Amino acid sequence: MPLTHAELLKLKRWNTPTIANAIEQVSRVDPIGLSNLEEAHDFMPEMGPMIGYAMTVVISGRDPQPKRAEPESFQRYREYLASRPGPKIVVIQDADKPHCHGAFWGEIGANHARALGCVGTITDGAIRDLAEMKNSGFKALARRLAVSHAHTWPLRWGVEVEIFGTKVKPGDLLHADVHGFTIIPKDAQPRLLEAARFMDDNECAALLPASRGAAGRSFKETLAAMKSGDARFAAAARRKFGRSTE
């Protein structure tokens, strides 16, 4: 059953590492796949995390020919963005990688996508008009900034893409912030909010007191408290979810 908009808003309150910790408890996914192989730069960390369903696009900025050959592609790309309800994250693979000839995103594109229910983008290409994009309320994780849009044009959409070493399919539920992004597996979604709350509480109750309360203790006493906290943390996770994590 799809998550409600209220549930998505509640998940947005947690940072992406907390979401990853929660996924480990309620999904069979291998945790090695929860991180990106390459760094994604969050150009708007002050906007906090974002969550949404992936709308996937492949673009290029090197060659002017696609724009001449398929002049209607941009409008059809917009129609694709409008084809499902939000919140949505536009996930863009730059076909010119490792080069980056221009920015697909800027003030106009951000405002248009926001009006179509998109909350932000994750792109291994470039963005520009940074202040104006922030003003529109459209968050961006990208590879770099660029001055010009060059010949950027949508080539394909609604297909599997690979960005920052992570493969993303249309409709994948994504959570992203300054740390990068992660795909929330379907088997994790029903209990994810419960798990995020529990694991955060578990850290505060079992792990943090050993270090935050170390004043006046010897190193030996602090190490013993840390070991005891580790055991209580793992035991609480086992009781709740049938597994543990460090």
**Could you say which structural class the secondary elements and strand pairing correspond to?**
alpha/beta
Strand content: 15-25%
Tell me, briefly, the overall form: elongated
Report Rg: 21 Å
Number of strands: 13
Order of secondary-structure elements: HHEEHHEEHEEHEEEEEEEHH
CATH class of the largest domain: Alpha Beta
Average pLDDT reading? 94
User: What is the CATH T-level topology of the largest domain?
Assistant: Glucose Oxidase, domain 1
How far the N terminus sits from the C terminus, by CA atoms, comes to 30 Å
In CATH terms, what is the architecture of the largest domain?
A: 3-Layer(bba) Sandwich
CATH superfamily of the largest domain: Ribonuclease E inhibitor RraA/RraA-like
Helix content range: 25-40%
Number of domains in the coordinates? 2
Topology record:
Layout: H1 5-11, H2 16-26, E1 41-42, E2 50-60, H3 65-69, H4 73-81, E3 88-94, E4 103-105, H5 107-115, E5 118-123, E6 126-127, H6 130-136, E7 139-142, E8 144-145, E9 153-157, E10 161-163, E11 166-168, E12 173-177, E13 180-184, H7 192-212, H8 219-241
Parallel strand pairs: 2-3, 3-5, 4-6, 5-7, 6-8
Antiparallel strand pairs: 1-7, 2-9, 2-12, 10-11, 12-13
